[in-house]
Design a protein that fits this description.
alpha+beta; 8 strands; disordered N terminus; disordered C terminus
Length: 138
């Protein structure tokens, strides 16, 4: 029987984010879908024009960073592995390892004005969070 991956789940409240529990990936996706259906105006979203929007704030992203950000947004608050980000950023290619590091550094600078933060999770990947979540949790 295959094992299911546990992910940390952060639930957003009016005052920030709280670590609720670990949950199965399918449950994370279900909760995130409900969040989008409720129409949270502050939820970060990527437009087809390559503009990242979070509330009234915006950031324009170049194509490679758009593809990386789409994956991070789909799994907001969840660690995304380096392999998944490499496949998204460079489909059908095998770039060198440090290429992702360079683009993640650029992406961090671009998302800072929209109150988002990209954390490095050692030996696992990266996680996108709202800045208020990050300061609330530690």
């Amino acid at each position: 029987m295959p094992t299911r991956q546990l992910w940390p789940m952060y639930w957003r409240t009016g005052s920030g984010c709280l670590l609720v529990s670990t949950t199965f990936e399918r449950e994370v996706i279900t909760l995130r879908t409900r969040w989008r259906e409720q129409g949270d105006a502050k939820a970060p979203a990527m437009g087809s024009d390559g503009v990242l929007r979070c509330g009234s704030q915006t950031a324009v992203l170049p194509p490679i960073e758009q593809r990386i950000m789409k994956v991070l947004l789909e799994r907001f608050g969840v660690v995304v592995g380096r392999d998944a980000l490499l496949k998204a950023g460079w489909p059908g290619q095998a770039p060198e390892r440090n290429v992702l590091d360079v683009h993640m550094g650029r992406l961090r600078k671009r998302v800072e004005p929209v109150d988002l933060i990209i954390k490095t999770v050692r030996s696992r990947g990266y996680m996108l969070e709202a800045r208020s979540c990050s300061s609330t949790l530690g």
